[in-house]
Amino acid sequence: MTEVQDRAPSPVQAQAPRPANKLKETSWVAPVIWGVIGLVIIGGIWLSWSPLKQGASPLLYNNQDDPGWISRMLFQPTTLGQKLLVMVVAIALFLAIMGLILWLIDRPKIPTGVVLAGFLGPVVIFLSIGLLWSAIKTVIQSFQKFDDAGAANGFVGLDNYAKVFSGQNTQVLINSVLWIFLVPLFAVAFGLLYAVLVDRTRFEAVAKSLIFLPTAISMVASGIIWRYVYLAPAPSGKDQIGLANALVDLVGGTPQNWITKAPLGTFALIIVMVWIQTGFAMTVLSAALKAVPDDIIEAARIDGATGPRLFFSVMLPSIRPTVVVVLTTVAIASLKTFDIVNVMGGNLPKNNILANAFYNALVVRQNGLAGAFAVVIFIIVTPVIIFNVRQMKKAEENR
């Protein structure tokens, strides 16, 4: 008994030893590092804002002055050797910075605050300069006017917003509303229908891969593919090259100018976006359907629920949060769509939407009008995101 008591560790010995070389959490190093991060953010904001007053390009590179050969090589590489050198420099810089951060945070004397600064500091810098400040700057520019060189010439109040909602942009707003409602509706409907039909079938993986394939293709490539589908009618007596007109001609119909004819062009472009987003909706909703507990389905079948009633009364309510997430995600993607309209729409005003109108304003250096378009897009997206977050919270509360 005495030996057992002698071997038992005392309360003091049972406590884990604290490292003697660990700096106190109140070390001055962390505040200094965060102060440096703050100065970097302020400096980045100043560099990106001050050239705008002179009409120059923001940050690091000024395209109005004759740059040195180093700046020209890094920011305007033309030869293969220069491009390879830029790639090597970028990779080496990334490895050097990450290696330095990892080496510093692995030191035994580094306090927790410094570790947090090492991991979160670069993220805070890039989010502050690249996202938060850019958003604030866009809002400021939406109230300014700019000359032909892109330099700010004072504030104009709500004039840019008045142009956005003027008669010349009425079709842009109507088309954008059609995109926001029709693309999510049909993409989710087709994706959900396909997910239900191929669920637990013999060739499920192959069938889903075929539908998901358009999602993996870039929108520019998709636009080029569908340009040939919607190709204009061939001259009289010639075979139709476009697939759509060939099918119309096959059934005895009249070939159409699918893209240039309004409002047919808008619906033709919407079909392309639905084709792209259906694979995404099918993938997410299929995973949600597989996550529905078998006990619920078996209990519903015992109660006599089969076929459509089983789906609409049991399975669909179970995946309702996922449906809401997919709807809002596709709606936001539709509102930001630029590639399809720009590649296929031929920049026709009757096919235009907000994202492409924003780009067109930047091309002609109407930065104030472009900022107003961007703010309008943000205002439209915000309630969609809020609705999405609220639905997700309700789903968590019901679990």
Description:
This protein is an all-alpha fold. It has 18 helices and 2 strands. It has a two-stranded antiparallel ribbon with strand order 1-2. α3 (29-49) runs parallel beside α6 (112-141).
Descriptive key words:
68% helix; 399 residues; two-stranded antiparallel ribbon; mainly alpha
Question: Topology of this structure?
Answer:
Layout lengths: L1 H6 L3 H4 L14 H21 L19 H7 L4 H26 L6 H30 L2 E3 L5 E4 L3 H6 L5 H29 L5 H13 L2 H11 L13 H8 L13 H27 L3 H9 L4 H12 L1 H16 L3 H6 L9 H10 L3 H32 L1
Antiparallel strand pairs: 1-2
Task: Explain briefly what this protein structure is.
It is built from 18 helices and 2 strands. The chain has 399 residues and is mainly alpha-helical. Helix 3 packs parallel to helix 6, helix 5 crosses helix 6 and helix 12 runs antiparallel to helix 15.
Quickly give the structural class. Answer: mainly alpha
Helix content: 55-70%
SSE arrangement, N to C: HHHHHHEEHHHHHHHHHHHH
Separate helix tally:
18
Straight-line distance between termini: 53 Å
Uncertain spans? 18-26, 51-61
Report mean pLDDT, rounded to a whole number. Answer: 80
Which of globular, elongated, flat, extended, rod-shaped describes the shape?
globular
Query: If you compute it from the alpha carbons, what radius of gyration comes out, rounded to the nearest whole angstrom?
Result: 29 Å
Strand content: under 5%
**Widest beta sheet: strand line-up:** 1-2
Q: Biggest sheet, open or closed, and with what strands and sense?
A: 2 strands, antiparallel
Number of strands: 2
